[in-house]
Amino acid sequence: MRKQMRQRLRLLLSGLLLLAGNLLPVRADEGMWPVQDIDRALEKKMQERGLQLSAGQIYDADAPGASLADAVVSLNFACTASVLSERGLILTNHHCAYSHLARLSTPERNLLETGFWAMHRRQEIRLEGEKAWFLKQVYDVTDDVEELKAAYAARGEQPGSRKIAARMEELYRESSGLEAVFSTSWAGEKAWICLYKVYDDIRLVAAPPVSIGYFGGETDNYTWPRHNGDFALYRIYENDAPVRGLTPLRISLDGYAPGSFTMVLGYPGSTDRTRSSAGIGFDETVSLPLENRLRERQISLMRQWMDTDPDIRRKYAATYFNLTNLQGSEAGKALCLNRFRIRSERRAQEEELQAWIDADPGRKARWGTLVADLKKAYAQMQEGEQDKILYRASVFTGTQIGKYYFRAGNAKTPQAAASALREAREATDPRLERDLLEETVRTVYTAMDSYYFGEQTKTLARRFGTNYAACASWLWENSLVAGEGPGDAVTKEQLRKDPLYRFFTDISFPRINQRNGHLDKWNAVRALEKEYTIAMYRMQREKGRPLYPDANGTMRLSYGTVGGCLPRDGVEYNWFSRPEGILQKADPERYEYTVDERQRELLENGKWGRWGIPDGKGGKTMHVNFLADNDITGGNSGSPVLNGRGELIGVAFDGTGESLSCDAAYSEGYNKCICTDIRYILWVLDRYAGMKWVLRELELANKK
């Protein structure tokens, strides 16, 4: 098929999209390695650390069903899952199922608080929009890029990059019968086509309540110790029946110890580990502090109302989860960038880069002033980017009602516009939205430049002055979503007369890009960062250093070992947590630390059965979570954690607070992956949920 691809490429003059991507030289157990690029050197290094498999047993495109990678699945490239049975049962994180659980919940049946347990297949619920992507083949198409670029140049054609990429994916899709996804790394220095078998009928089988799956909530997020049973079970269906013939992972009940080999297979979304010191400095001192400050007030308002009304909590649960998760991650990233001096580390690399550039006339002609140009370009872009951040955090995402108004404005018919606004009334709470609107109004008038204001925004400023509460109330009370709400149809003219709609659309985002040539400045930064990545890549390659590309949504392997951490002076992280910690934290007055009666009874009795671990005193105990130093990032949620034999021992779900600069750099000794122990998951399924039929499917029901 590969030969046919190349022939058709030449005939059709299809091209490849050159998108920015990065790389980094390797140290310690750092690295998210493309599974198709596991060479003998990496294989040997992993075997020295405890791997008992060959590279071909991890990934082998020529032997379907024979490798571990065949049991790893991407869930819409947002999370990862792993196959547990030949009947399509897959395991992922509870927080990956969180938005589904929120949408399926009603005031009478809140699945976030009760959990969901299908006691037979007829009770499994289809998850709208969820898809499972199984990797089947990866083609290196880098050479085709150069051929097609030359062919297009000869014809005098310069087609758009998106159009070229879409055509390439269409070509491979038609020829293979599989879904094709094009990707690049190293700023276009390498390019691939990944072929996937995709299933679009995914059903929920099991998910614990938040008191198990998200115990500790936002308070414990990115901290240690954690006590999360962060798991959910889905099933893949095909033709309205469970899919057959998948390759499941073997589950190990043998556990692990400090120094035990661990391997994670999954789909990390993105990293940016060759970004310039100027770019890191911009994030650390400009964008992250501003974004974090704006989100804090929004989160505070949501939390206050959610604590007073269970129905508000249900409506906003998914939004609040995503917002607090992002806030915790970004606030922690800002701290880690500073603490671990990532910018200084990058400057040291740039000194080496500059010396390498200066050593060659050709390199000097292309990149001689690159580092200095980047610093200057970020300084010129700063003001416009701050305006964009303010707009996005206030007008665009400061309220939930706003997104429905934007949808109504883009609706093709009056009926669709009315439907969007009716949905807005059902999905939101007017009390909370009114408070969020007031905060948005305050941000607009106290932080944004009036240069961007339209006529209504200027009029409201003159009318209400600094009385932002009165301004927000007037906007709300005179809107189409107030009172009886919209009818069956809302025309464009009605929307234009709605003051709330006008507030959301009166501030011109395009003017931000147009002012002082900001869009050109932004594009200049992107172009310079791309050149920076290419230069860094070529230097590292020339010096013979092992390299891995930045994460870009493709399947990756990372390896490490189980172990604790010394996060700061006088503090030591143990390598596992136990159920006793749940009881120690339990507090009925705090939602995130609530434990239901059944959970408390089981934890206090400590009857761990065949899932327990010898405690050294003649009894048994249980591990809830454990730490390993695998290199992971967003998208790895739900990834299987495997031992040296390739057996499942846990599920990755988070990183510690000391890991949060991982998108920019790997901090040796501090990057820690938090995993849920597979034995705790099985114990919850067995003792808490009583899902014996699932355990029988896993062929574990009679294991001792």
Detailed description of the structure:
By secondary structure, this protein is of the alpha+beta class. Among the domains are: 2-26 and 64-242, no CATH class; 274-396 and 508-547; 398-505, no CATH class. The protein is built from 27 helices and 24 strands. Helix 4 (94-104) packs antiparallel against helix 11 and helix 15 packs antiparallel against helix 16. The model is unreliable at 8-24 (pLDDT under 50).
Q: What structural class results from the helix and strand content?
A: alpha+beta
The largest β sheet comes out as: 11 strands, antiparallel
Shape: globular
Average pLDDT level = 92
Uncertain segments: 8-24
Distance between the termini: 48 Å
Number of helices: 27
The proportion of residues forming helix, as a percent range, comes to 40-55%
Radius of gyration: 27 Å
E-strand count: 24
Which range does the strand content fall in? Answer: 15-25%
Nutshell version of this structure?
With about 700 residues, this protein is an alpha+beta fold. It contains 27 helices and 24 strands.
Blueprint of the fold:
Elements: H1 2-12, E1 23-25, E2 33-34, H2 40-49, H3 55-58, E3 72-75, E4 79-83, E5 89-92, H4 94-104, H5 111-114, E6 116-117, E7 125-126, E8 132-140, H6 142-155, H7 161-176, E9 179-185, E10 190-199, E11 201-207, H8 210-213, H9 217-220, E12 232-238, E13 241-242, E14 261-266, H10 277-306, H11 310-339, H12 342-358, H13 361-367, H14 370-396, H15 401-410, H16 414-427, H17 430-447, H18 455-464, H19 468-477, H20 492-497, H21 499-506, H22 509-514, H23 518-542, E15 547-549, E16 556-561, E17 565-568, E18 571-573, H24 580-585, H25 597-605, E19 613-614, E20 620-621, E21 625-628, E22 640-642, E23 648-655, E24 673-677, H26 678-688, H27 692-697
Antiparallel strand pairs: 1-15, 2-16, 3-4, 3-8, 4-5, 5-12, 6-11, 7-11, 8-10, 9-10, 11-12, 12-13, 14-16, 14-22, 17-18, 19-20, 21-24, 22-23, 23-24
